[in-house]
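Box 3.1 A note on notation
Throughout this textbook, protein chains are presented in two layers. The first layer is the amino acid sequence; the second is a token string describing backbone geometry. Keep the layers aligned when reading.
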Amino acid sequence: MSTDPFESFKATQKAGWAYFAPLEALTSTVAPHVVKHARVHAEQRVLDVGCGTGVVAVTAARLGARVTGLDLTPALLERARENARIAGVEVDWREGDAEFLPFQDAAFDVVLSQFGHMFAPRPEVAIAEMLRVLKPGGTIAFATWPPELFTGRMFTITGRYAPAPPGVAPPPQWGDPRIVSERLGSAVKDVVFDRATMLSPALSPQHFRAMFERTAGPVIKVVELLSTTDPGKLAAFRAECDALVLEYFRENTVRQDYLLTRATKIDTAL
């Protein structure tokens, strides 16, 4: 019998994110920024947590790093394997949970995540696991969505229409440097933050929202729920999303700014 209190929630996440693959056309452009921010280089052992279709893992492997990619969703790992095959790189793909990493202590030189670990329901558990498998002196790095900017606000809207279970932390909290610093705590030093932008092509705000409805797990959940229970509320949700997209829509692109974080794990033996 499972002792994970969020087992049902994670099963819903696994099913919802199975449709994410088309978004790799956008997230592929972020991957080199994450890898560069993490200072990945050849021969390092690198873990990509919440690897999705493998855009960060493959990018790091192309530099000669020895990469492991872990994700909760088998359909995304299948796509990741194909991406690695096409790129001609070797990556060790694992199905697994960010809150229960199936690796030994201090197994990796770099642990990173691109918009992945932020969806683990318990931030304190996920970050403890990421730091556990990181070597002393190693680098932890990730990209996340700030709560006050487009994608963070989109997830906030989604959460109002389909609230998460009690105890699940809102993913956009990982985009607040103050909260990130608190969560990393005294286990790290030399915390560095940076900002970057992903420009997503879209023919209209409605096109962009429709794409999210087909690919983004939490949005898929809202649409499925309200389609059968409250069509009027679904129309209100869509109108609110369209209005938000319009704020960031210029010349057939949607601006999505993200936060980059990097820190060094303290060697407590020193």
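Strands lie at 45-49, 66-71, 91-95, 108-114, 134-144, 188-201, 249-250, 253-265. The longest strand covers residues 188-201.
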